[in-house]
């Protein structure tokens, strides 16, 4: 239980520091190598398998619903066929091996073995103790997995739980706001914080015509202007979505408390910056261009 109220947006700032140390895995050659060894050579097949494996050998509908912003046609090209190539159990073991290799490569052995890493794992796991399963399918599936023994993998596991907990809540809010999967991508990109259109089109399975049609729908709602920028109403909607996501995601950070959140954020910011400088993410991944 916390005894000190959190500063405004402290939970969001902590999430923004911790989450890249989870999501770097999806851009890692280590994950591609491990899943290729299982027979999953497509980068999309590897992503769908790695992220959905905790749910078991699910079908395309479940992946489309929980991942939200992918074209169902793209998902259905790979799911459930991936499970004929590799079992969820084999994928989970490969994913953990890839997380180990990725963190060691990006952060270095000194960080991996440091007292700070053990401290961060303890703090992040403590925060997850207040996460809730109800209405959060991706989080709930991941929460059923065992916590790895090694501190850097326990930290990665906790970062994954915190990411999926926040993401599940955010998806519910997108549905409530009447933003379909591509409208959510387009409006996020227009805010300057989302994935660049070229990456969204290439990795999420949408076409340029799909993108243009989503822009037109947002213009009809007066959320986007003729130049493709957010209107005042669009900006306010995106702001409200983030604030409401913070509200739905407040429990783990309130449970950890102000001092714990501050310390976890400080540790994760340093490692996030190290990982980014080490090339964890493509340089053109984010932005409006």
Automatic annotation (TrEMBL):
This is SalK. It comes from the Bacteria. NCBIfam families: SCO6745_fam_HTH. Pfam families: HTH_67.
């Amino acid at each position: 239980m916390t005894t000190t109220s959190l500063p405004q947006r402290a939970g969001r700032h902590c999430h923004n520091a911790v989450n890249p140390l989870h999501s770097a895995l999806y851009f890692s050659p280590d994950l591609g190598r491990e899943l290729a060894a299982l027979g999953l050579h497509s980068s999309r097949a590897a992503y769908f398998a790695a992220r959905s494996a905790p749910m078991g050998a699910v079908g395309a509908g479940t992946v489309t619903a929980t991942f939200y912003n992918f074209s169902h046609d793209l998902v259905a090209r790979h799911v459930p066929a991936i499970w004929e190539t590799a079992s969820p159990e084999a994928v989970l073991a490969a994913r953990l091996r890839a997380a180990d290799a990725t963190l060691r490569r990006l952060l270095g052995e000194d960080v991996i073995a440091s007292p700070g890493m053990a401290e961060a794992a303890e703090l992040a796991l403590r925060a997850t103790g207040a996460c809730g399963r109800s209405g959060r399918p991706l989080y709930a599936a991941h929460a059923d997995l065992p916590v790895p023994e090694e501190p850097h993998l326990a930290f990665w596991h906790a970062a994954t739980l915190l990411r999926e907990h926040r993401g599940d809540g955010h998806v519910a809010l997108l549905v409530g706001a009447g933003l379909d999967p591509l409208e959510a991508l387009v409006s996020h990109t227009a805010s300057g914080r989302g994935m660049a259109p070229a990456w969204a089109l290439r990795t999420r399975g949408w076409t340029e015509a799909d993108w243009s049609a989503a822009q037109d729908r947002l213009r009809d709602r007066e959320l986007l202007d003729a130049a493709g920028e957010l209107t005042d109403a669009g900006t306010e909607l995106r702001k409200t979505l983030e604030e409401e996501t913070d509200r739905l995601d407040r429990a783990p950070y309130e449970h950890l408390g102000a001092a714990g959140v501050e310390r976890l954020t400080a540790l994760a910011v340093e490692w996030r910056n190290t990982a980014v400088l080490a090339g964890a993410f493509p340089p053109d991944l984010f932005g409006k261009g």
